[in-house]
Amino acid sequence: MNMGKYEQVPHPFIIEPPDDSGRVFNTSERLCFNLILVGKAINYLPYFILAFIELGTIGLGRGRGKYRLINVKDGDKTVYDIDDRQINPGLPKELIISEIFNFENVSEEDIKLRFITHARILDNRDFVVKLDFHILVKTLMRRLHMLYYFHCNEKESLWKHNEIIDKAKEVKIAENTSKWHDWERYSSRQGIRMKMGGLKDTITYRGKIEPFLSIITAGEVLHIGKGTSFGLGKYVIIE
């Protein structure tokens, strides 16, 4: 694989913040978040849990707010509980992503996406403020390809990238309320505030969507753009 066109290998984990991020949590309140591990990183779940436990004693954020890790769940299964302190990982789930794109006998339809956290998507080294469908597809394919190659099977995908992207250009924006939202976060490691703006809100595409659905639904889980490791680029399909 030619790494010359990629700046770095993507992290095989995503930390999704709570939906009410930005609020102040008082003593005794619970803060819930999601952790998504990809490929070989699943084997390191116990280390992630121990890291979160240790982080609670050190303190989180600028004010070094301390916490206790009460439990970890995988669906209904308890993976870790503070009372017995045993780690019982669940079975990993599979994302089925098609490597075959069939554009014959496909009818046009709409798909509506809502970007929940800031989507910082680069195209030709510039941040995207209008997310055309082919840029969405190209960015998702690059991310999924790299996660698969570096953290799963070390195999190249069978996608015919140029052909797929050309077909994606035929899908148009039908409605767009997405816009750039400025946002800052504080970096405890660097001791500075960092500008991390990106796209939020909704965008509707119209065209032959069906062949692209497997990578779009995978993107719901794995996010898109820069800063995915701490939850940026999260979207959901709402229609």
Automatic annotation (TrEMBL):
Entry superkingdom: Bacteria
Provide the species name: Candidatus Magnetominusculus xianensis
All copies of the CRISPR-associated protein Cas6 C-terminal domain together span 113-235
The protein here is known as: CRISPR-associated protein Cas6
Which Pfam family name is an example for this entry? CRISPR_Cas6
What are the top taxonomic ranks of the organism?
A: Bacteria, Pseudomonadati, Nitrospirota, Nitrospiria, Nitrospirales
